[in-house]
Task: structure prediction
Amino acid sequence: MEHLRGRFRAAVRDAAGLHDSVPGVGVCERRITHAALNKDNGLIDAATGAASGPGTPRGRVGTNFAKAVTGAVVESRHQWRELRDALREEYGERRASVMVCALTHDDPLSDCGGASDRTIIASFVMFALVLGVIAVSSRRRHPAG
Result:
């Protein structure tokens, strides 16, 4: 039965034009990989969000790249909203606003409030750095795939 599933997947892949330039490995050996579905390479205007110059075969089909960019923008905004709401719930409006400012400004100590807020900012930045280190070390121990 597994052999038939593999042949079916190959037929679907061929019919859809999903040819992997980077084949799956291990348990993903006969699966369609990100390389085949990829639509996320091109130019995005930072001011307008306009997508142009798709750089992958799937991205060049119709408006695939523009749709992928629109989806990414919508999802990013949703995640930011969720993060802000969670920070407000956990730390209150004032402290949460300072934390969001620290994440979104290049010079948070100057841009995000007075002297009393600097302690919040410094603590939050250190917390974010520790989380980043944990995430990187976790990925090294447990690679995706």
